[in-house]
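re: ur question from earlier - yeah i can do the single chain one, its not a big deal. heres the input i used so u can compare w yours
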Amino acid sequence: MLNAESLFDLSDFTYADVFIQNDYAWVALNNLKSYMDSIHYPELNKTLVPDGKPLAETIILHEGKCISADEIEIVYGDTTKGGLKATRNNEILEGASVIMAGAILTGERIAIGKGVLIESGAMVKSPTVLDDCCEVRQGAYVRGYCLAGKRCVLGHTTEIKHSIFLNDAKAGHFAYIGDSILGNNANLGAGTKFANLKMIKGNVIIRCNGDRIDTGRRKFGAILGDECQTGCNSVTNPGTVFGKQCMLLPNTTSPAGFHKAKSLIRK
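and the output i got, formated as tokens:
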């Protein structure tokens, strides 16, 4: 019940091999650095996308090339539904991604899929992977070792570090996500915080059916199974694991440990 197969459908997740079959789901967090260090990252044009400086102009990524957005019409539709469109001379640039002026990218290892939008004021640090149709909103702070599947939202003033988003996971507003995993279609209410460091020394322990499982991790936020939801201003304690379709009510602090599928957490 604590392995990846019990928490997630990995059949359409591009990076499913970050998980180890039949092992605890949090082992993927142990593997994340070495896994992301082994990925091939395309080189960005440093003239148009300077390292660590705000972009002076909006940039289009298309077929492996960086293009100035001058003379390109951009339609900012719903990114996660394929609504981001770029057109040049009445020709649609299929799969074009957009990095808006004022965004900041740092480091050499940032992979951006098709139809991705990075808004002004976002900071994306290396290494980061954004699969197709992801949206990184204004003010997002993506601190590195962040792996996002298709159609994810890395939201406004949301801080993310060393974490995995499976397909369609969304953290739209004012969240903190550290050393955590969001399953397919997981959705965080505004102001959700995943505490990831115990106030006393020692590894994070997962309590499950009366057993105490040492995760071997000093830092461990939360793992949300597929289709979990958190309410606004909710908090999880270090070492929280939700089975599929759990719901954490607004203004609620979740106890650490495993919560079985379809649990309603009220306190």
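The chain has a mean pLDDT of 96. not sure if urs matches, ping me
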